[in-house]
Amino acid sequence: MMTQDDHAALTVDLDRFTGMLELTFTLEAMLALRFELSSLDDVVRRRWLDLMRREQGIAFLWSPARWERDYMIFVVRKYDIRAYAFSPRRFEAAVRLTPDVLTAFLDWLEAYWF
What's this model's pTM, rounded to 2 decimal places? Predict the structure, then answer.
């Protein structure tokens, strides 16, 4: 996913066998922050997808280790979605998505996770 001016990007990599997500936030092709969301079991994934498909609300995507590993918080509103990524290594990143982009992203994830 890229901004309209191509100055920032969010790249999502998915391990089809373990379900691990790796999200890389890139700014100006110079700075990249990488977050790894691993140990997400099927129950956690399904619950998160269900929460994300609501018209509005907050959804956490994290493993049972919670604060010890990277995690994300999503704030879903009718016209935009904000995604915040946090790492215990003391860095964070954020992105704003449109509802259409979010729907395509969730459909893509669901197809590979299940």
Answer: 0.90
